[in-house]
């Protein structure tokens, strides 16, 4: 066979425009899929493998005030409102501290005041319960109390070993 004969040129054929378009669409779909998955990924808390965390997340509500539950990827996590509200089970348990403690229907939550001052994000963690549950909220602070009340069902069944005390209790 000679170079340039119809027999050899059929094997050296360059991809046509349709092939390039199909390849570009496939690559774009793969990248979009990865970005979609990554946008729903939430990092797990250090002790997310605690078997009780599965029950905490399964008891988390479908809706919290003004937001529906999202599709989230991560161990022992739940989110609402496009990740405006995120719950992570298995956080480090808090030692006794002087941060603001809020009790919502019998569940004590300690506010990370440093984070609130730095970037305006409300980060609260259960106090005296194991595993600890962390809740992060980027919306208005006035809504946090109502949301914590909605989250009670997810965490109130965890035994409470310690309670928050106020200044009047310590004196």
List the topology elements:
Layout: H1 6-9, H2 17-39, H3 51-59, E1 63-64, E2 67-68, E3 77-80, E4 85-91, E5 101-104, E6 107-111, H4 113-119, E7 122-126, E8 132-137, H5 144-155, H6 167-170
Antiparallel strand pairs: 1-2, 3-4, 4-8, 5-6, 6-7, 7-8
Written description of the protein model:
This protein is 35% helix and 20% strand. By secondary structure, it is α+β, with helices and mostly antiparallel strands. A six-stranded antiparallel β-sheet has the order 3-4-8-7-6-5.
Quaternary state reads single chain
Q: Largest sheet, if any?
A: 6 strands, antiparallel
SSE succession: HHHEEEEEEHEEHH
The span between the termini is: 101 Å
What descriptive keywords fit this protein?
171 residues, 6-stranded antiparallel beta sheet, two-stranded antiparallel sheet
Brief account:
By secondary structure, the protein is α+β, with helices and mostly antiparallel strands.
